[in-house]
Design a protein that fits this description.
By secondary structure, the protein is of the alpha/beta class. It is built from 9 helices and 7 strands.
């Protein structure tokens, strides 16, 4: 899934000149999909073209890994197996989408990122033995192309589960059927990312109206891109 394209001024990060790389994330039920849709529509209406991609996925090979991950077998796989699938998909995505477009000066907005890996595979699946490796793999796969900004939509776990359970239009995945404790651990994982990367992770209140949340997200993206 790759949509739109336009070059933006480079920003200097870690000695590498590259465009902004923004990840929008949050637990299932947080309203993440709604907010990505609102952001994409607004930037499109304003002529601010961009690359919209997703994790896992974003390339034909990575989408195949996503399909395996989303299957019943993938959902039942161990934390380590899921974790390795995510990094394999991410590695190919970085090689084919992220690094080329960032190097060319193109803004990237991603639906999920490694933020979901620490939240879902490390914390939700209770695999603390993977946490140290997470930071090593992050450095190995991203190199100098780490996300400029993570925007995490945060809501109470109880509200996230209530929204998922009440959404009759949603085809429930095995992950949607998890107990409340699962949602609580996912939230803890996102909060841990914020604690470890306080200058790169923004947690915003997802319990407000979609319009209010959108305005905050747009302000953050606008600031990252240097738009007037």
């Amino acid at each position: 899934m790759v949509e739109r394209c336009q070059k933006y001024p480079f920003v200097n990060q870690g000695g590498i000149m590259k465009a902004p790389f923004i990840v929008i994330d949050g637990m299932d039920g947080s309203g993440k999909g709604t907010q990505i849709g609102l952001l994409a529509a607004r930037m499109g209406d304003e002529g601010r073209n961009f690359i919209l991609t997703r994790e896992p996925g974003g390339t034909p090979l990575s989408e195949k890994i996503r399909d395996i991950f989303s299957s019943p077998e993938g959902a039942d796989a161990s934390a380590r197996t899921q974790y390795l699938m995510m990094w394999a998909a991410r590695s190919h995505w970085m090689e084919k989408v992220v690094i080329p477009y960032l190097s060319a000066g193109t803004l990237i907005v991603s639906d999920r990122g490694d933020s979901s890996t620490i939240a879902y595979q490390v914390y939700a699946k209770m695999a603390p033995e993977l946490e140290d490796n997470f930071w090593r793999m992050r450095k190995f796969i991203f190199g100098e192309y780490t996300p400029t900004r993570y925007i995490i939509l945060d809501i109470p776990a109880e509200e996230a589960k209530r929204r998922i359970d009440a959404d009759t239009s949603r085809v429930k995945s095995p992950f949607d059927m998890k107990p409340l404790e699962w949602y609580e651990r996912v939230r803890e994982g996102f909060q841990t990312l914020h604690e470890e990367l306080p200058h790169h992770v923004t947690i915003i209140n997802g319990a407000r109206t979609p319009e209010m949340i959108h305005e905050e997200i747009y302000r953050i993206v606008k600031g990252q891109c240097g738009w007037m």
